[in-house]
Write a structure and sequence with these properties.
428 residues, SH3 type barrels, CBS-domain, 17 helices, elongated, disordered N terminus
């Protein structure tokens, strides 16, 4: 968050202007004849700090004209003076896809502040004017920006100064650099879209999920379309399954299946469990076969059971494997398994025989057989074990994950403590 003044920062060629100081001001030609009032500004979105390309003039109750900003001789709080020979044309009904009408499409809209990882509302826009070239520098998301827009700034400033001369309100505006925010209500031009995708992908998935939750339904879908498949999957894993299910119904079957393929199987199963049977079957059919089969198996279990929370993703090796083999397997699956708690050891039939930790691997000689490191799991659960019993076992033995086995002891997957907590605390 930065602060800046609305007054010129340097005399002459460089100054700052607020959009609110221009909106509604008279537009006059070089002979002093009034053409109308400034109703909007149109920015080209292909640059990090978009230049103002043209202005929209309200010439009557219904008539709107448009004129290139290069035709402006002088602009400020007292009005806009045009150069000689400037001739406005009727404003088009729609702007090209890489153009943005600021009053219509940005003011009072929610935007994503990708630095603060939150939603904010635009109360004003802050321009840098360099030798007549106007560029969007900041958006004003503060209370003072709203006061300025409403035309109350002079009165309220005087009242605050009389009561509390040193108030922070009087000296600072809440300005965010334009390149750090992303509008949600419009599909921008190609270059702007690429910038948005890169910026949004840098947010923590939990922050992005929280932003999605705060948005309305249409805005959620608009933001989801900005995200690449991997970023979307990571964010939706952190969101409530019912919200994710609702979002996936708004995109194509292929796009939804791609996102589900990227999600952890247990998270994908939770989402599919929220969908109507017909939609669920359609998406399972569109998913990659290995991922679909894993999810289908998880859907067989009640949501509040160990099987319903279980993830089949784990590192599983035979007892004769070595420490070097285990470390190589962890490295191979690093992208697939962002968190590795234990290495599970099984016999040829898949029956769980023990486990070892990453700490065991790091402290041991690479040639050491894993069976020499194996320890017995303090607790295991079966797929239909109630989640409260799973939580009790995790608490009793201070476990970060609990292996899930069938009646014959074959390892099926594991339940992690974060999923246990989310379920028990009602966060899911």
């Amino acid at each position: 968050m930065t602060t800046a003044s609305a007054s010129p920062s340097n005399p002459g060629d460089l100054r700052f202007l607020f959009f609110s100081s221009l909106l509604g001001q008279p537009v006059v030609d070089s002979d002093g004849r009034r053409i109308g009032r400034l109703a909007d500004l149109v920015a080209a979105t292909s640059e990090p700090y978009p230049p103002i390309e043209s202005m929209v003039i309200r010439a009557g109750r219904e008539q709107q004209l448009q004129l290139s900003w290069t035709a402006v001789q002088q602009a400020g709080p007292r009005g806009v003076l045009l150069k000689p020979g400037a001739r406005p044309e009727p404003a088009p009904g729609t702007q090209p896809p890489d153009r943005l009408r600021l009053a219509e499409e940005i003011l009072d809209r929610q935007i994503v502040d990708v630095e603060g990882a939150k939603l904010v509302r635009v109360n004003d826009l802050h321009f840098l004017d360099v030798k007549g070239q106007l560029r969007i520098a900041h958006v004003d998301v503060g209370f003072r920006g709203l006061v300025r827009r409403l035309g109350w700034q002079r009165v309220l400033d005087a009242a605050v100064a009389a009561v509390r001369p040193g108030a922070h309100y009087l000296s600072a505006d809440q300005l965010l650099s334009w390149k750090l925010v992303q509008p949600l209500d419009r599909t921008p031009g190609k270059v702007r879209l690429e910038v948005a995708q890169r910026a949004l992908a840098q947010l923590h998935p939990a922050d992005l999920a929280e932003i999605l939750e705060e948005l309305g339904r249409d805005q959620r879908a608009a933001l989801l379309q900005r995200l690449d498949v991997e970023t979307a999957a990571e964010a939706l894993e952190e969101a409530p399954p019912e919200m994710t299910a609702e979002l996936l119904e708004k995109v194509s079957t292929e796009a939804a299946a791609d996102i589900l393929d990227e999600m952890a199987p247990d998270e994908a199963a939770d989402v599919l469990g929220e969908l109507p049977d017909e939609t669920r079957e359609e998406l399972l059919e569109a998913m990659e076969r290995p991922e679909a089969r894993e999810v289908e198996r998880l859907l067989e279990y009640p949501h509040d059971s160990a099987g319903g929370l279980m993830t089949p993703d784990r590192v599983q090796l035979g007892l004769r494997a070595t420490v070097a083999d285990a470390l190589a397997e962890v490295r191979r699956r690093a992208d697939e398994l962002p968190l590795v708690y234990e290495i599970f050891l099984t016999d040829a039939a898949g029956v769980l025989k023990g486990f070892c930790t990453l700490r065991d691997l790091v402290l041991s000689d690479p040639a050491t057989p894993l069976e020499r490191l194996a320890r017995e799991p303090p607790a295991t659960v079966e797929p239909h074990t109630d989640i409260r019993d799973v939580a009790a076992a995790a608490s009793k033995y201070n476990l970060v994950s609990i292996p899930v086995v069938n009646a014959a002891g074959v390892l099926l997957g594991m339940v992690t403590v974060d999923d246990i907590l989310a379920e028990v605390l009602g966060a899911r």
